[in-house]
Amino acid sequence: MFVLPGQDSVLARIESALVASVEVEDRYLNEIASHLVVAGGKRLRPLLTVVAAQVGGEPYGEAALQGGVACELVQTGSLYHDDVMDEAPTRRGVETVNAKWGNLQAILAGDFLLARASEIAASLGTEVAGLLARTIGRLCEGQIDELRHTYNPARPEASYVSSIGGKTAALFATSARIGGIVAGLDRAVIDILTAYGDAYGMVFQVVDDLLDLTATGEKLGKPAGHDMVEGVYTLPVLRTLQGGGVAAAELLSLLGKPLDVAERDKALGIVRDNGGLESAMVTAREWAARAEQLCDSLPAGAATDVLRAAPGQLLATL
Asked: Where are the beta strands (DSSP E) in the chain?
């Protein structure tokens, strides 16, 4: 996803720049700060920045690469903090920082990555610096909204939409916007790229929430239904509850508290068999259609073609 034909080296450049961005003289901090960076990842956000920068038809420059790195550092730093909150033992196939070094180190290392991201953004100008700072704020707002409704089966759907808009879609929107800004694209094009990133981010999170309920534990790297166990009720669960009837009542009787394995499996069965997944999938398709439609207003070219194809590629993972 988000790689133009003939640009296979872009991912290698992103990886190299990411590693360099967290290198410090203190070997202990260097090991902790780079732990999840070297563990790998899809790098969708920096790839989006690089492709967005090429929508005008010109090759991407170092500024786009660094802007994408800043966005990826924000994402990785937020994962350090998420793993502390979730008490997660693994991430990307390796021990989490909190599991290996402790919560205090994980929190500080996450803060360090956010600081590095801010430093890079500042080097790209005041507009990018302000944009990234606001985005970090949006991430926090989205996460707080989710935490407010933990174990709340009456969570309004508007809360879910607002939460994923902040904690996920906002950073994709910023990734695309930074690409347009540093490439010097017209403001109208930059605004379309921003809206595209937001819509793509919404698809990304709804698909991720669907996978949490449908994929195998081996594919996910964690047990299916993990969000429900943790009291995070996502769109498929909310839509099942909204459907009413016996299934909704039975699911409601299980929620509102931590689930043991048997309760989790029973809740998964209810959500899978009573329309919640299909309803959420319709919403994911609607966001994907919006992202694709926005591409019609971008300059024609290889970069726009890549952007247009990306939402459908997300849906195809289900």
From this structure: 90-91, 94-95
Q: Which residues of 242-251 are buried (b: 16+ CB within 10 A; e: fewer)?
A: eeeeebbeeb
Model pTM score: 0.94
Question: Which residues fall within 8 angstroms of residue 9, CB to CB, at 6 or more apart?
Answer: none
Between CA 121 and CA 70 the distance in angstroms is 6
Beta bridge partners of 95: 90
Of 235, 28, 49, 7, whose CA–CA distance to 135 is shortest?
49
Contacts of 159 (CB under 8 A, 6+ apart): 145, 146, 148, 149
d(CA 228, CA 268): 9
Ramachandran angles phi, psi of 91, nearest 5°: -155, 130
* pLDDT tens sequence across 154-182: 999 999 999 999 999 999 999 999 999 99
Q: How far apart are CA 141 and CA 146, in angstroms?
A: 9
Position 222 pLDDT exceeds 80: no
pLDDT digits (tens, 9 = 90+) for 12-44: 999 999 999 999 888 888 888 888 888 888 999
Distance CA 3, CA 221 (A): 26
Residue of 171, 185, 108, 111 lying closest to 138 (CA atoms): 171
C-beta separation of 315 from 285 below 8 A? yes
